[in-house]
TrEMBL record:
This is VOC family protein. PANTHER family: PROTEIN YJDN, PROTEIN YJDN-RELATED. It comes from Microbacterium profundi. SUPFAM superfamilies: Glyoxalase/Bleomycin resistance protein/Dihydroxybiphenyl dioxygenase. Gene3D superfamilies: 2,3-Dihydroxybiphenyl 1,2-Dioxygenase, domain 1 (3.10.180.10). Residues 6-125 form the Glyoxalase/fosfomycin resistance/dioxygenase domain.
Length: 136
């Protein structure tokens, strides 16, 4: 782990959400259940801790009884320049499936490309890149 990694508490669908992010971003996904962590404050098959590592890193779990589920307002997860343009375009398209395009991925007046999407789990992403000069 090399920096800030978001840790999201999901409302009972952590396995589904983290599997979706794994499908989008690739990398390695590890999921551990409440039962594996000897937790008794929820169903044994609930996710006590999940880790996605790779180009995009996320941690997550199913919210416990005293935890609020994720609801992020006034913030976005930035993926600016984190991969090649074609990969970022693919990520944007996948995050948009069953989500909401807040601002389509497009070329901006200053020459860069960016856009924002809120995915099916309510997480807003800023995806962008600089245009590659011809021949690079």
């Amino acid at each position: 782990m090399s920096g800030l990694v978001p840790y999201l508490f999901f409302p009972g669908n952590a396995r589904e959400a983290l599997t979706f992010y794994h499908e989008v971003f690739g990398g390695d996904l590890s999921l551990f259940t409440y039962e594996q962590f000897s937790r008794t404050d929820g169903p044994g098959d609930a996710i006590a801790h999940g880790m996605l590592s790779g180009a995009v890193e996320l941690f997550g779990s199913d919210a416990g009884p005293d935890q609020d589920a994720v609801h992020i307002v006034g913030a976005t997860f930035s993926l600016l320049g984190t991969a090649e343009p074609a990969v970022l375009q693919q990520w944007f398209a996948q995050l948009s499936e069953k989500g909401t395009d807040v601002d389509p991925l497009q070329k901006r007046p200053w020459g860069d490309f960016d856009g924002q999407v809120t995915d099916r789990y309510g997480i807003r992403w800023l995806v962008g890149y600089q245009e590659q000069p011809a021949g690079e």
